[in-house]
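Quick one: structure tokens for this chain, please?
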Amino acid sequence: MSITLKDIFELIQICIKAKPQVTNRDLRCLVTKVFNRVLKNYTTFTGYVSENAITAIKEMNGIYQKHKIVREHHKKIHRSITELIKNMRETNQWDYHLFEKKIIELSSVNITTVKENQQLIAQGSTYQSVGIKLIHWNMLDLNVKIIIHDHLLRSDIINRSDWLAT
């Protein structure tokens, strides 16, 4: 039997009761680091790829090279889950359905370059402020789609079949 998102939600509450000094960030790490495999059931691809990621993929000449392009959680999943836990903790209003809904919302990914992803980590940064232009899947060359589908849209992307390289 594997651990579920509901189990993690309950563990967060147990940790708070047992050890109130545990930080919201530590509790968020239960979701994003310790039991991150649970997020596989929620991660979706939006269909958007940054212009720079497309260029990087084309420069690969059909051979995937790690550490150039990444799946980027454009809704700032770490910061947002930490804030959600903080709010539930402060109000003592623990709502699993809201928690799950937020996880689903926050688990969508775009494809960007590693450099763009690093720039987006900065507090207050946005795609616009960093100068990232997104291109939809329908506008991509077949070779770009193949690299993305085969190497970035692995089995942990639940809507992987929606993005076949055709």
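Helices lie at 5-18, 24-34, 51-59, 77-91, 96-106, 114-121, 127-130, 142-151.
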